[in-house]
UniProtKB/TrEMBL annotation:
CDD domains: Mrp_NBP35. Pfam families: FeS_assembly_P, ParA. Keywords: ATP-binding, Hydrolase, Iron, Iron-sulfur, Metal-binding, Nucleotide-binding. The keyword Protein biosynthesis does not apply. In the C-terminal section; belongs to the Mrp/NBP35 ATP-binding proteins family. ATP binds at G99, K100, G101, G102, V103, G104, K105, S106. This is Iron-sulfur cluster carrier protein. It comes from the Bacteria. Homodimer. Residues 3-74 form the MIP18 family-like domain. SUPFAM superfamilies: Fe-S cluster assembly (FSCA) domain-like, P-loop containing nucleoside triphosphate hydrolases. Gene3D superfamilies: Fe-S cluster assembly (FSCA), P-loop containing nucleotide triphosphate hydrolases.
Length: 354
C-alpha cells in the first residue's frame, strides 16, 4: 500500500518547481491506517505560497487509491540551501533594493522579514542603508545597542521573532556618517562576516536606494541568492527601477521579482479605490521578472512602523498587510525555485521511495 500511495503522489506536481513531490523528496510519510491515508509533505519553505493547492492536489490523488476512505495531510518545511551557501549557517541572502528613495523599500524589507519569520522561517535582517538606517526604528529598537559575544562577534538584536543589525544601533542617534567607499566596504564586510547570525534560512538585506558602493560591496562580499526591486507605479520610479535591475544584471545577481508599493489607495470611509500614482506600471517590468505583488497605500503601515511593530504582525488583517504576507510567500517560492533549479536536472526520472 505504501508503494500505491507513492505512485499516486508521483502524479502531484509542485506548482512552482513543476516536478512531482516524490522525485523532489518532499514526501516524508505515506501510510494507510484503517482506511485513512496519512501523508506528510515536507515543503521547501514554511512560507510556501501554494500550500493550499498542494494539499488539495494530494487529497484528490490519494483518494483515487483503492481502500482509501479519507486523507490526512500534514506539513513540515525545510528550506533548501543554495548550491553555493551564502555564509556559514545562512542558506540564502536576499537583497531588497530600489532605484530611488521614497518608494517604501525599508518598510517592505522589514515586513517581508517579519512575515517570513511569522510563517516559521529563521530570518535575519541587515540594514545596509548605512547613511539612512531606519530598520531599528521600525523594529522598535532604536535605543538598543549592539554588543559582542564571547567570540568577539557582533550579536544581532532580536525582536519580533527575527534577528537584525543596523548602523542606527552602533552610532549616536542623529549623527551623520560621512564615509567614503572603502569605509563603507569595511562596514558591510563586518556586518556580514563579523556578526553572529547563527542558523538562518533567509538573511534579508535592506539596501540604500540607487546603485552605489554598498550594492557593489555586498555582491563582492557574499554569495547572493537574488534581489527584489521595490518601486511605485509612476514612470519616474519605474525608470529608476529599471536602472537598479540593470545594475544587478551586470553584477550577476538574479532578480527574483518586483514589488509595486503604494500601488493604490482605498478610502476607508467610502471604500473607493484611488490610483494616486497610477497603477500597474510594474507589470511592464513584470513581463521579464515576476511581479511578487501590489501593496496598497495604507496609513496603518506607516503608523505601525512609527510604533516599532511591522504591519504584518500588528494588523495582519488589513489589505496592505495581507498583500505583504503574500509578497513574502511569493518571494519564498522564487527562492525555492532558484535553489532547486540546478539540482532538478540531476534528479532521476524514476520514482524515489522516501
Amino acid at each position: 500500500m505504501h508503494d500505491a500511495l507513492l505512485s499516486a503522489l508521483s502524479t502531484v506536481n509542485d506548482p512552482e518547481l513543476h516536478r512531482d513531490l516524490v522525485s523532489l523528496g518532499m514526501i516524508e510519510r505515506a501510510e494507510l491506517l484503517s482506511g485513512v491515508a496519512h501523508v506528510k509533505v515536507n515543503l521547501t519553505t514554511p512560507a510556501c505560497p501554494l500550500k493550499g493547492r498542494i494539499e488539495a492536489d494530494v487529497r484528490a490523488a490519494v483518494l483515487e487509491v483503492p481502500g482509501v476512505q479519507d486523507v490526512q495531510v500534514t506539513f513540515g518545511a525545510t528550506v533548501r540551501q543554495a548550491a553555493q551557501p551564502a555564509l556559514p549557517g545562512v542558506k540564502h541572502v536576499v537583497l531588497i533594493g530600489s532605484g530611488k528613495g521614497g518608494v517604501g523599500k525599508s518598510s517592505v524589507a522589514v515586513n517581508l522579514a517579519a512575515s517570513l519569520a511569522r510563517d516559521g522561517a529563521r530570518v535575519g535582517l541587515l540594514d545596509a542603508d548605512v547613511y539612512g538606517p531606519s530598520v531599528a526604528h521600525m523594529m522598535g529598537q532604536g535605543a538598543a545597542r549592539v554588543t559582542a559575544n564571547e567570540q568577539r562577534k557582533m550579536q544581532p538584536i532580536e525582536a519580533h521573532g527575527l534577528r537584525f543589525l543596523s548602523m542606527a544601533n552602533l552610532s549616536p542617534a542623529g549623527q551623520a556618517l560621512v564615509w567614503r567607499g572603502p569605509m563603507l566596504h569595511s562596514a558591510i564586510q563586518q556586518f556580514i562576516k563579523d556578526a553572529a547570525w547563527g542558523e538562518l534560512d533567509y538573511l534579508i538585506v535592506d539596501l540604500p536606494p540607487g546603485t552605489g558602493d554598498v550594492q557593489l560591496s555586498l555582491t563582492q562580499t557574499v554569495q547572493v541568492t537574488g534581489a527584489v526591486i521595490v518601486t511605485t507605479p509612476q514612470d519616474v520610479a519605474l525608470i529608476d527601477a529599471a536602472r537598479a535591475i540593470d545594475m544587478f544584471r551586470k553584477a550577476s545577481v538574479p532578480v527574483l521579482g518586483i514589488v509595486e508599493n503604494m500601488s493604490y489607495f482605498v478610502a476607508p470611509d467610502t471604500g473607493h479605490t484611488y490610483d494616486l500614482f497610477g497603477r500597474g506600471g510594474s507589470r511592464k517590468l513584470g513581463e521579464q521578472y515576476p511581479l511578487l505583488g501590489e501593496v496598497p497605500l495604507n496609513v496603518e503601515v506607516r503608523q505601525d512602523a512609527d510604533q516599532g511593530i511591522p504591519a504584518v504582525l500588528a494588523h495582519p488583517e488589513t489589505a496592505a498587510a495581507q498583500a505583504l504576507i503574500q509578497v513574502a510567500r511569493n518571494l519564498a517560492g522564487q527562492v525555492s525555485v532558484r535553489a532547486l533549479s540546478q539540482s532538478l536536472a540531476d534528479l532521476p526520472d524514476q520514482l524515489t521511495v522516501v
